[in-house]
Design brief:
The protein is α/β, with parallel strands linked by helices and about 220 residues long. The chain has helices at about 1-20, 20-25, 45-50, 75-85, 100-110, 115-120, 125-135, 150-165, 170-175, 205-210, and strands at about 35-40, 55-60, 90-100, 180-190, 195, 205. α3 links the parallel β1 (about 35-40) and β2 (about 55-60).
């Protein structure tokens, strides 16, 4: 707790004063362009990876960056997605998985979550991921020849959750009108690399290489 309190004080006395006008403007409202759906894992920090400032990302986090399919029983995830599209008018949704994901590890090894009933139930929303990855060779859709089973599962799960997103009426409508783009990402902790799902090849390609000429590093 001392570490958190120290950070709060540093922010209040050093960081905030330097950006006071920015925060005062944000107090009037938010208009993020992106809904960023990622894992609760403490090792991934969306704003750090994307180098975005407060107000730029609308973030949804949970174990395994899972999007439960649309149903009559509305979830917190459903409320966040609906609000992001219908009220904030976000222009893109990114589903970002990551290397060494504990949720996907639990999905692949269900015995490890037997004593965690809530986790076990939550992972049922990734059952299709388990079924698909079990029947795919490691070099199958979404994965590379060098990927291990866990990495393959993480990438496959991103694709499954994108499919789940498309069951939401608000998502379907906005995407059909060309007002919304859905993107799948994979982030690798140990190298800092981010990979984007290519809609045509269904493979994850390096963002650095894909956008090297289009988006310069400044």
């Amino acid at each position: 707790m001392r570490r958190l309190l120290q950070g709060v004080r540093v922010f209040q006395h050093r960081v905030f004063p330097e950006q006071r006008s920015k925060f005062e403007e944000l107090a009037k409202g938010q208009s993020p362009a992106t809904l960023f759906i990622t894992c609760s894992d403490s090792r991934i920090v969306p704003e750090l990876v994307t180098q975005t400032a407060p107000g730029e990302l609308f973030v949804l986090r949970n174990a395994g960056n899972i999007v439960p399919p649309w149903s009559a029983e509305h979830t917190g995830e459903a409320a966040t997605i609906e609000y992001a599209i219908s009220v904030l008018k976000v222009r893109e949704i990114v589903v970002c998985g990551h290397s060494h994901c504990g949720a996907m590890q639990g999905l692949l090894n269900p015995e490890t979550v037997e004593k965690l009933p809530a986790v076990k139930q939550w992972l049922s929303h990734a059952q299709q991921t388990l079924e698909e990855v079990t029947n795919l060779p490691l070099e199958g859709e979404g994965s590379d020849a060098g990927d291990d089973l866990l990495t393959t599962a993480v990438k496959c799960n991103v694709m499954v959750q994108l499919a789940h997103l498309r069951t939401y009426p608000a998502v379907m409508e906005a995407e059909a009108r060309g007002k919304l783009e859905l993107l799948g990402w994979f982030y690798r902790f140990e190298t800092g690399e981010t990979f984007e799902l290519d809609a045509v090849s269904r493979q994850f390609v390096s963002v650095d290489q894909k956008y090297e000429d289009e988006i310069p590093v400044v």
